[in-house]
Design brief:
The protein has about 350 residues and is an alpha/beta fold. It has 14 helices and 11 strands. Helix content is about 45%, strand content about 10%. Strand 1, helix 1 and strand 2 form a beta-alpha-beta unit. Helix 1 runs parallel beside helix 6. The longest helix is centred in the first third of the chain and has 21 residues.
């Protein structure tokens, strides 16, 4: 019978563990029904660093069953994600969680399966257990994660990564996918499939690429790059936009490339590509324009090339992206979709 411990602390997000536990509870019922078992397979406890009640990010009290020190060795450890203010305050938050981080390291070294998603990936990364392994994190914290943990192979495109005995999730609400991983690992694919159908969990949705935007690239202090970004926003459809941009800024192409690389670790050409695709995503979500019209609006002239680039960036064709994320019934001409 797998023993599950959920590590909670002041500021923890309720949804980062409550939804997961609901899914495990449904799986337990399927397990008992399928095998006529009297007892559930998964059992769990909540533990806080000092064993005291904690206050969640939404100011709801959470009463743990025990302290981390009294939790004992667990088969599965689930680390609650916490609220995030900004990257300047985050190191202070991590320093405040040293007792939790030390306990996680002990659990990992003892062979426990450890689950961490969204901001909780930083708590797991702080242990050093992920050094040399592949991981993911929430896409909008990818740059901060890379800076702080250069020894971890970050694959931010993935919504879920399995590395040894660690299950690492990306942006929030990956809890159901994480639960399905645990259910399949401990109960088998049949119970996992039944639970997935009952909970309407798309177990094949393993990419967070479609949700990524350029917002993560806007935080820097280079005024020239900021001006370049503003100009490209207006003139992205212009032929030879990057040459015109260098002329507009009165700098050489070499200087422009160097400043972009320093500010955002990306070339101007790649930034322009990302900007065009990001704008196309927003238009596919909110407008009724045809895919060909959107292609022209963001600066591309060949539909097949645009569709290939769009799919490379998002793992979805433009038509599939619109079908999944559109806010309106665009009435688009699907024959034009890539």
């Amino acid at each position: 019978m797998p023993k599950v411990t959920i590590a909670v602390y002041d500021g923890a997000r309720l949804s980062s563990f409550s939804n997961l536990l609901d899914t495990l509870d449904i799986a337990n019922m399927q397990w008992q029904k399928q095998y006529e078992a009297r007892e559930a397979l998964f059992e769990w406890q909540l533990a806080s660093p000092g064993g005291r009640a904690v206050t969640s990010a939404t100011r709801m009290p959470v009463v743990p069953d025990c302290s981390l020190a009294d939790a004992g060795r667990s088969d599965i450890v689930i680390v609650a994600a916490g609220k995030y203010s900004n990257k300047y305050h985050y190191p202070q938050f991590l320093d405040q969680q040293r007792r939790l981080i030390s306990w996680l390291r002990q659990q990992g070294e003892a062979g426990s399966d450890i689950v961490a998603s969204c901001t909780a990936t930083f708590l797991l990364a702080e242990t050093g257990l992920l050094d040399g392994l592949r991981a993911t994190t929430t896409w909008w914290l990818a740059n901060l994660f890379r800076e702080r943990y250069p020894r971890i192979e970050l694959d931010v495109n993935k919504l879920l990564v399995n590395s040894e005995n660690y299950i690492i999730g990306g942006a929030g609400n990956t809890d159901s996918l994480v639960a399905m991983q645990l259910i399949e690992r401990y109960m088998g694919p049949q119970i996992a499939a039944l639970t997935s159908k009952l909970m309407l969990v798309d177990a094949n949705h393993v990419e967070q690429t479609p949700y990524m935007t350029l917002q993560q690239q806007l935080q820097h202090n280079d005024s020239l790059v900021a001006e370049a970004q503003s100009w490209l926003q207006v003139n992205m459809r212009e032929p030879g936009a990057l040459d015109k941009l260098a002329d507009h800024l009165n700098v050489s192409s070499r200087t422009l490339i160097r400043r972009f690389k320093q500010a955002m670790d990306i070339t101007p050409n790649r930034y322009l590509q990302n900007l065009r695709i990001d704008t196309a995503k927003r238009l596919l979500e909110t407008s009724g324009s045809t895919i060909e019209a959107i292609m022209l609006q963001v600066g591309y002239n060949d539909l097949s090339s645009f569709s290939r680039l769009f799919q490379r960036k998002t793992d979805l064709t433009p038509r599939a992206y619109r079908s999944r994320f559109a806010y309106v019934d665009g009435g688009q001409d699907e024959s034009m979709a890539g």
